[in-house]
Amino acid sequence: MQITSALGSALYGIQKGLTGIDKNAAQIASADAFNSQNPADFAQPLVELQSNRLQVELSAKVMKSVDETIGTLLDVVA
């Protein structure tokens, strides 16, 4: 039961991170970001992009750990 919860959390983290990456990419690509006089308008999506990238990477590592744990459990049972 807890393995399912960990997989669900990892999948949610990946989905949330990818959604954020899509949003950040759209903000960076928009013409408003290039025409803005305030550099923070361009920097903020770049910082958030890195944060979302890390979220996806770490969630994938959680998923990999759960997968390896399931494999180990199956090896012990077999």
Short description:
91% of the residues lie in helices and 0% in strands. It is an all-alpha fold and 78 residues long.
Task: Describe what you observe in this structure.
Helix content is 91%, strand content 0%. The protein has one domain. The protein has helices at 2-29, 31-35, 40-77. The relative contact order is 0.18. It has 78 residues and is an all-alpha fold. The longest helix has 38 residues, at 40-77.
Keywords summarizing the entry:
single chain; 78 residues; mainly alpha; rod-shaped
Instruction: Specify the biggest β-sheet.
Output: none
Counting DSSP E segments of at least 2 residues, the number of strands comes to 0
Q: Note the quaternary state here.
A: single chain
Distance between the termini: 20 Å
Mean pLDDT: 86
The gyration radius over C-alpha positions equals 18 Å
Model regions low in confidence, pLDDT < 50 over at least 5 residues: none
Number of separate domains: 1
> Could you say which structural class the secondary elements and strand pairing correspond to?
mainly alpha
Strand residues, percent? under 5%
Give the overall shape. rod-shaped
**Which percent range fits the helix content?**
over 70%
Quickly count the helices. 3
SSE sequence, one letter per element: HHH
